[in-house]
Write a structure and sequence with these properties.
242 residues; mainly alpha; two-stranded antiparallel ribbon; 13 helices; 63% helix; globular
Length: 242
């Protein structure tokens, strides 16, 4: 379908009261397409954020950088949709895909790394349900877009809340997350992902670690492993040993 026809289709859909979002099963080719487009859009959002930053629009630059982080978080959720074993799990993963806080929980990774985290177990706070860091980033995004009243009715204005230094740090963070396709993003890799991960999905952590290590080993042995992380490096990250 041409871009023009796509636009006409979207305009026609906009006339309806509700635009139906897809929430069914995914094949590996559909998942690979979704991952590729999410990362491409994340990169585009970073570029837009940089344009705004260059023109002194700190607040909007920050907001777009956070949107880029959220887009860069979609591939992980798409891979989870692939592993869903029934309608209930599938609905849960699609809800996560469309929930902002579920896609930005990785934003604290660089800070944890700076504090010495190196193995998977050092990053448990990223997915800790008790941690509020996803909500914090979403609140920053809201503050970068909208006015609001806080505390004893103190009115905020995005341009007063978001400063240059903070905007720059968020763009650097977003650029890192959106820098390109990593492992487990191609059709061939995702076939391996489903093969190894679905039987142990949401099971014991040690089983999922073993399965993920097996994904990397098989992809590397077949010469299709993308990204800069080797199978041995992933094993060291997962198990904390050479």
């Amino acid at each position: 379908m041409s871009p023009g026809l796509c636009l006409v289709g979207l305009m026609n859909m906009a006339d309806r009261k509700v635009i139906k979002q897809y929430s069914g099963t995914l094949g590996v080719s559909q998942a690979a397409e979704g991952i590729a487009k999410a990362l491409r859009n994340a990169q585009s959002l970073v570029e837009d954020a940089e344009l705004l930053f260059q023109n002194g629009r700190w607040a909007r630059a920050t907001a777009l950088a956070i949107l880029a982080i959220e887009e860069a978080g979609k591939p992980a959720v798409i891979r989870s949709v692939l592993l869903a074993r029934d309608d209930s799990e599938r609905r849960e993963e699609w809800r996560a895909y469309r929930t902002h806080a579920k896609k930005n929980d990785m934003w604290i990774l660089p800070d944890l790394f700076q504090k010495g985290a190196r193995a998977l177990d050092d990053f448990q706070s990223v997915v800790d349900p008790e941690s509020d860091h996803p909500q914090v980033l979403d609140a920053v995004k809201q503050a970068a877009f909208y006015t609001d009243a806080y505390g004893t009715c103190h009115w905020s204005l995005p341009d007063e809340v978001i400063k240059e230094g903070f905007a720059k740090s968020m763009i650097l963070l977003a650029r890192g997350f959106a820098k390109g396709e990593g492992a487990l993003s191609s059709v061939e890799e995702l076939d391996i992902w489903v093969k190894h991960m679905r039987p142990v999905w949401k099971g014991e952590m040690w089983e999922m670690k073993q399965a993920l290590a097996a994904c990397y080993r098989e992809a590397e042995e077949r010469g299709i492993l993308r990204g800069r992380t080797t199978a041995s490096e992933m094993a060291k990250f997962l198990f904390g040993v050479e």
